[in-house]
Every structure is written in C-alpha cells, then in structure tokens.
Amino acid sequence: MKIIAKARDLDGDQGRGIDICVLGFKGHPNEVEPSQVFMEVYDGKLRIHVWTGESENPQTIAIDPEEK
After folding, report:
1. pLDDT score at 48
2. Interatomic CA distance for residues 5 and 19, integer angstroms
3. How many Cβ atoms are within 10 Å of 41's Cβ, its own excluded?
C-alpha cells in the first residue's frame, strides 16, 4: 500500500496528520487502538513519530523538504 499526501494535508499546526494503527501490535500506550506511527508536517519538516508500546513518548524522525 502506498500513501501519497500533500504537505498541507499533514499540517501539524492545524491538528492534521496520518495516524497508522496496525491491530495486534503495541503502540501508544494511552490509545484504545494503539497507534504505532503518526506523520505530520511541523515547522517546515516532515516528522514521523513512532511508538514502541514502551513509553508515551515516541521516537521522532524529522525530514527536511526537497530543495527547489
């Protein structure tokens, strides 16, 4: 499965993003259906947050935009 989105659709300042939950696996411990991955554009960067089920705090990777 491939997901294609525009940055404006993932505007973290507006509470938008992609929340990925795979049932049967650990994720954010406070969620009813625990999310493992959340993607947003915040402060001009694509940020990917990954929960392992061990902590409320995810690991976060920030990716710079392409130079034009």
Report:
1. 97
2. 13
3. 22
Number of other residues whose CB lies within 10 A of the CB of residue 50: 16
Domain ranges of the chain: 7-63
The enclosing H or E element of 37 equals: strand 37-42
One-letter amino acid of 47: R
Q: What is the pLDDT of residue 13?
A: 84
| Mean pLDDT of successive 10-residue stretches along the chain, which has 68 residues | 93 90 87 87 95 89 92
The pair of structure tokens assigned to 3 is 């997901």
